[in-house]
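Hello, quick one for you while I still have it in my head. I'm working through a protein record and want to make sense of it properly. Would you mind checking whether the tokens look sensible for this chain? I owe you a coffee for this, so here goes:
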Amino acid sequence: MSEDEDKRDLLPPSTPLEDAYDLAAIVSGFVPWFGGAINDVLSGISLDLKMERVGEVLEAINSRIEGLEDSVAHEYVRSDDFRELLERTLRQVAYERSEEKRRVYAAFLADDIANPVEPYDEKIRFLRTLEELQTDHIRLLKAYSKEPSREEESGYSGSIAQTLIRRLPDMKPERIHDLASQLQDLKLVTHTSINTMMTARGAAHIYNYISPYGKRFTKYIMQGEDGLNG
């Protein structure tokens, strides 16, 4: 059996991960320089939390950073900033029921390890925003970010609502209106009403209505695009 097969056998998908220390030891075996940080954080998480969810996210992070030889990343995971960010993220993961959002959390941490460029306070703000979001909010943000088609740009007029409804055909219009209003409350979009009529081209380029903060947030969480599929 190959070494890679041995590693996969350590974390069978169907096995509940009940012991935080055993989990930390498993991950340390994959990526030793990351395992120390995990152990420090998991030792402070009570075992009544959903450790299987935490394990799922840690396994996803491991698959992304395994083989990363960047000395800056190695040094960063030993920093207080990263330890605090890791703790906050895993606590949110433990209570997160949505598998899709847990994939986003995994992408968030893995990309932060590989590219620790954003200020700490900004990343904490990202985390707070992510905790507020439902999976449908994320779908809506993806719809806002989508490159418009030629068909959408044609015609004389349109609205943000019409564009979102066209891009999310399985979502009820009233649901789209409600979610868009919530994204505005979260300072992720800047429009006041998605029903305002405008040129067809303006209605197609709704990326322009994502706020400056919303663009930073969306770019950061979408660096792990496979974590947002669905």
